[in-house]
């Protein structure tokens, strides 16, 4: 089992590293390519958008096709996007390459969950989630540090994208040698129309979220057109999914109470976590003046929280079979961490920042992976891919919305802060210069100080929004029905007939086997 897990953990490491290795390097990358704050956000959003739109498709394909081959295809797409991003000459090229990279990332993040679920029962899966948490922490700790070192060294920022290529190649070879899954022969009926409508509807709404309030007003014809089109397309997708033989997002799975609440919690956690943490590297570098390497070191408390909380929580869940208490506790701690971060400015104590980031890391480690486990525990093995893909889809959707919305809020707040500081200093604001505000090294000293203060003071506002969003996750996990994790790979059949016959010769009926709590509190 651990041999097969090694390749999957490498795959997950590659997918996570692609985002974290860029986080601390992004201010310098965007500055070197003379990009804007909006383009800074789009470097992250493009990858998340592509991953979000394709995640349920990858998940459904995993229910219909060879899972091992799908993982290897996703690795190939990811490598192609990484190489293209490394050779980008301007911001549009970089953003486009990140979208290709996102296609592979969506497959890797979804398929790893599916393959693990096909090998390990939910009750035992809690133990292995500690390994997943360790890889997550290693990628999120090592990524920013590696990105900072690369940017500060002679290698240059392009190696932030090239560095994942050899790791992906090793993961491909390891999976080929160690991963052996039984492929269940099923008629492949891919719902192309439903997949296309879901991807199109989500993309339209996310593009609107990115540009509203900046390129056009909230109350404008552009808003009406884009929101109306997005809603109509998604309504059409729901109608198609209700009639499809093999829907990309099975509505009967999404309607199940535990699944729907876990999706709501994942949406909130994704919005808060992705949206908030993406801008931490920018805060430390632009708002506080630290180097990329120093910014990576300063985020270690958050990653330590992820590592220890996911490992310890996974073992406790395996021992008790209970998952709801840890979900409620994790989302609550996440809210507390973001609430603490909402008070930061460009002069906040690093001790205070470390404590707040530690809480955020603990909250993420206790909740994110275990929400997937809660959903996988409620569905049949044949629907594991679609269910896991749907949850990952909504989590990525939340992350994409969070990055877009919080990025827009941050940009507007920074603009207002800079305008106010320029006015008080008697400097005429100019938007026509060739130097980006993110290219700090090229700015004159007085302007540089004002830009640092503007970014540092504005960042606290986006963490307050993150805290409010994460409250929805707390409510969803509290309402969630408590269930014990099953010890079998698949749900038991609803009814079984024993070959033994009673005195009349009629086969005796055997009551369905259920795993849960009885009135006495047993199992």
From TrEMBL:
Keyword Transmembrane helix assigned: yes
Transmembrane portions of the chain: 39-58, 70-88, 100-119, 131-150, 156-175, 187-209, 221-240, 261-283, 295-314, 326-344, 350-373, 458-479
KW Ribonucleoprotein (keyword) present: no
Topological category with respect to the lipid bilayer: Multi-pass membrane protein
UniProt KW keywords: Membrane, Transmembrane, Transmembrane helix
Gene3D superfamilies: MFS general substrate transporter like domains, Multidrug resistance protein D
Location of the region described as Disordered in the Swiss-Prot/TrEMBL record: 495-523
Protein's cellular compartments: Cell membrane
Record PANTHER family: COMD, MAJOR FACILITATOR SUPERFAMILY
Signal peptide: none
One Pfam family this sequence matches: MFS_1
Protein name (database record): MDR family MFS transporter
The Major facilitator superfamily (MFS) profile domain, residue ranges: 4-485
Entry-linked SUPFAM superfamilies: MFS general substrate transporter (SSF103473)
Primary site of residence: membrane
